[in-house]
Design a protein that fits this description.
With about 325 residues, the chain is an alpha/beta fold. The chain has two domains: about 190 residues, Vaccinia Virus protein VP39 (Rossmann fold, 3-Layer(aba) Sandwich); about 130 residues, no CATH class. It is about 35% helix and about 15% strand. The protein has a seven-stranded mixed beta sheet with strand order 3-2-1-4-5-7-6, with helices on both faces. The radius of gyration is 21 Å and the shape is globular. The structure holds S-adenosylmethionine (SAM). S-adenosylmethionine binds next to helix 2.
């Protein structure tokens, strides 16, 4: 998934840095990914550690992590369910079609009419199976994750769901095909939460805490509202031009709250090693972060420069503007 702040490209660097500090053998360690998003960092460590704890404030992320992190044993017939969902007759007037497609005269075009109907059809069927106890939690979250990711691929947006495009773009006019969200199988059991980081931190403990909070004022809950709507599939009245639902406002996106919340989090963390990813353009400066963290133990910093967007070779752009720094702040508590 194309997710703001995704660590897909940085996950092996993060893994290397963690191993440099904690050691190569993590097999007895509990690793917590407290702001898990797509779950890619927890997924990277799932093969190495005794347990992954993954958490995020957003429900779509909870669903993804229930599948990618918590699911760890083979699920019988899962491909058969994917096939069935791909070949169902289309439901005509579901919630997504009614509110987020042009054909229903909603005035919104987040999906093509056909794909909107497909999302409704699949989402309703998954819920029916679950309510009838034909499928358990493992298959439920596997199918929901597959739907969230497959729907996201055909969304008619520039990148996030803060706005839709006026005309259907090429990828959005392609038919939605449900693709399986494959998870890693292993022997260990893992835990997934859907809580505010600063509440959950008081209830858990472990060895390695990985923190990747938002670093600017863009709230994930409004930028990805449609993923929550597909995941929750509840009844509400969509608001305004973009069909927004009620959304969470994270303290980490508020200039006046972030320092206090971050310090509380570090203070309350019952983990020996803490790693924080933070961007050089974030609400807290590098010095702010250092000043807070070093109060609670031995502090160090690793930096990596990386390419944010691919440079357009046809334009004579200043390539430097396409580079950004990622910081990994490290604390031994
Ligand atoms: C930078 S993203 C994490 C990206 C993730 N590491 C990845 O690679 O996909 C920040 C995440 O923090 C979550 N978030 C924001 N405020 C939160 C809070 N107070 N508690 C828990 N999660 C929060 C957002 O929903 C978002 O998924």
């Amino acid at each position: 998934m194309n997710y703001i702040g995704s660590k897909l490209k940085l996950s092996s660097w993060i893994e290397e840095e963690v191993k440099k500090v904690v050691g190569d053998d993590l097999s007895e360690k509990v690793f917590c990914d407290l702001f898990a998003g797509t779950g890619i960092v927890g997924r990277t460590f799932k093969k190495d550690v005794k347990q992954v704890i993954a958490n995020d404030l957003e429900y779509y992320s909870f669903v993804l992590n229930k599948n990618y992190i918590e699911n760890h044993e083979e699920i019988e017939d899962k491909e058969k369910y994917i096939e069935t969902l791909n070949s169902l007759p289309l439901l005509e007037n579901g919630f997504i079609y009614q509110n987020y497609c042009l054909g229903s005269e909603s005035g919104r075009q987040y999906f093509s009419d056909e794909n909107g109907k497909k999302i409704d059809t699949m989402r309703v069927q998954i819920e029916e199976w679950y309510q009838a106890k034909e499928i358990g939690d493992d298959l439920y979250y596997f199918l929901l994750s597959s739907l969230i990711e497959s729907a996201d691929k055909v969304a008619n947006t520039a990148s996030v769901y803060g706005a839709f495009l006026k005309h259907l773009k090429k990828s959005a006019s392609k038919e939605l095909i449900l693709k399986p969200a494959h998870f890693l199988k292993n022997e260990n059991t893992h835990q997934v939460f859907n809580k505010d980081s600063n509440e959950l931190i008081k209830e858990i403990s472990g060895d390695i805490l990985y923190l990747d909070p938002p670093y600017n004022q863009r709230q994930y809950s409004s930028n990805y509202h449609l993923l929550n709507t597909i995941a929750q599939y509840d009844d509400f009245t969509p608001k305004g031009k973009t069909g927004l639902r009620e959304y969470n406002r994270s303290d980490y996106c508020k200039k006046n709250e972030v320092h206090k919340s971050f310090e509380e989090l570090i203070k309350n963390a019952q983990f020996k090693y803490i790693f924080l990813s933070y961007n050089n353009e974030g609400l807290m400066s590098v010095d702010d972060v250092q000043n807070i963290m070093q109060k609670y133990g031995e502090y160090s910093l690793q930096t990596k420069e990386y390419q944010r967007f691919k440079a357009d070779k046809t334009e004579n752009r200043n390539h430097k503007a396409d580079k950004t720094f990622e910081y990994l702040h490290i604390l031994r508590k």
